[in-house]
Each structure stands twice: as C-alpha cells, then as structure tokens.
Design goal:
This protein is mainly β and about 90 residues long. The protein has one domain: Cytidine Deaminase, domain 2, CATH 3.40.140.10. About 10% of the residues lie in helices and about 30% in strands. The longest helix has 9 residues. It binds zinc ion.
C-alpha cells in the first residue's frame, strides 16, 4: 500500500524546516516533495541534509507551481529526469 505522509513544517522569512522526528519508521520511503516560494527549484543545503533521510528521489515545486516548474533530484542533489506517467 502506498502512503503519502505530510510532515509539519516550521518556516520564517528565509528558512524552513520539517519535523523529521515525526517521520514514520519505514525503510521503503521513496522520496520527498516540497515547494519553494521563488522560481529557483535547486535544493538548498538543508534540503540536501533532509534528502538523505527521505529516500532516493526528491521533487521541488518552484513558483509558478506548474508542471514545468517541478524538478526532480537524486539524494545528492543532482537533477534527474522527471517522467510523468498518466
Ligand atoms: Zn527546499
């Protein structure tokens, strides 16, 4: 069974963090998705630290939050091809 888990986040003017301590124990976590308020979808240093705990593939949705503004990254922050299957 697949499950989408939303973790609470705290954020301010120039930072954000998620509550990794609330992550359910699961060795099959596939990845993560979060948004950036601006147009840059590149992972921050904090994002890269979180990626290590959250699986293999990570999506960042940047402004203006369209399909074209979504980028996918591997755990090291290298951009990977995102294929949408409908
Ligand atoms: Zn980020």
């Amino acid at each position: 069974m697949d499950e989408f888990v939303v973790l609470p986040a705290t954020y301010g003017r120039s930072y954000s963090s998620i509550r990794l301590d609330l992550l359910p124990y699961d060795s099959h976590i596939l990845g993560s998705v979060h948004s950036h308020p601006g147009p840059r979808a590149s992972p921050s240093r904090g994002d890269l630290r979180a990626f290590k705990a959250l699986g293999e593939t990570h999506l960042i949705i940047a402004s203006p939050f369209t399909r074209e503004s979504v980028k996918a990254f591997d755990v090291k922050g290298n951009e990977v091809r995102l294929e949408v299957v409908e």
